[in-house]
Here is the input.
Amino acid sequence: MQTILIVDDEKNYLVVMEALLASEGYEIITAQNGFDAVRLIEESDLDLLVTDMKMPGMSGMELLEAAKKIQPDLPVIMMTAYGTIEMAVEAMKKQAYDYITKPFENEQLKLTVKKALENHRLIKQNRFLTKALSDRFRYGNIIGKSKVMLKVYDLIEKVSHSRASVLISGPSGTGKELIAKAIHYGSPRKDLPFVSINCGALTETLLESELFGHEKGAFTGAVAMRKGRFEVADGGTLFLDEVGDMPASLQVKLLRVLQEMEFERVGGTKTIKVDVRVISASNRNIKDDVAEGIFREDLFYRLNVINIEVPPLRERLDDIPLLVKHFIEKYRENASEKPVELSPEVWKIFYTYSWPGNVRQLENVIERAVILNPGRLIILDDLPQEMVEAETELDIDRFIPPNTSLTEALETIEEKMIRRALERCGNVQSHAAKMLGITKSLIQHKMKKYQISL
Here is the structure.
């Protein structure tokens, strides 16, 4: 719901304008002087300011200047009974959106307000797009070409164009939010907000306020109206991270929003309607929580229309060379210098370590090594001690499914070794063949067999 602040020292105008614009579906806040208006601008989420030009204490022009310092993008419509070209020009120079004279036609006011709000919506949309362009491919978007990740990519592509709720499951550090963003930016909602919230990081009271917003005075410290994440995400996507940690009382309210796409702010009575796609994520097994009565079954099925399982790093060892290369390029200071390499001992640990922190842990390890090592070769001394001291025997169960025949197991290992060698050699087949101790023609034959393309 779009919120408009109207400022006029004449109470009759406030009453008339509030009734007129509220009937158009806007939320209206009023003030009778510039000082109260400044406080409301500082405390509230506004979409438009409509102010009288001549007021005692602080003029409309002074309020315009103050408003632009607080919220530079906030559109301002100036009103006056003393309209002159000079005043209109001055207001426009100070970045007023438009200028109307009293008495005004009701339709003229409604049209001017509608245009100002649409202009503000486009500015906010552009801001989201600008941020999206800078964030969209951070961490290389989603890194990986292993079979398990190819299945994830396929699911992302299929679900992006639907409106269905998606539940992303997987351990911490596997990149669940990156997948949520990939779905959003591949959808028809890509030009509208992607808003996220961690449901496990806030207390019950704060989480409710963050999700649904609150009215002024709803609780101690609620000094002004605040819009919640559902309102901010209207038209776009809301990402509920760690949704499995949501308290039972809020699960009921979330279920209602998913069913009806409407809610009331904390302490409010006005019903707010939104159009939001919800993507959620959890590192918990929510099915088990449902069975134990911790998580509502009806909410689980609302959230889990489509499920995407993100594998832990230990189940996608083929992706380690790609990830290592990406994080080295991200953290080394001079990209023009010779590439940073890993010693054979480091590679061995990377392939046998369990990676409890998943991709996030791998990134931290590479960042640490690049910072601590001034040379071009990362060695064991550059790794955290707990990694070096960890058990390094290869756990075949990580990548060979149970009941696999010997022939299938050998082929799986062979394919993985070829892919790994190619990654480490920059896809130069002759170098990869030399590393594996085979001929170039043989590696080409094996690449064709396993459908490995460069």
Remarks:
- The first strand starts at residue 3 and ends at 7.
- The radius of gyration is 29 Å.
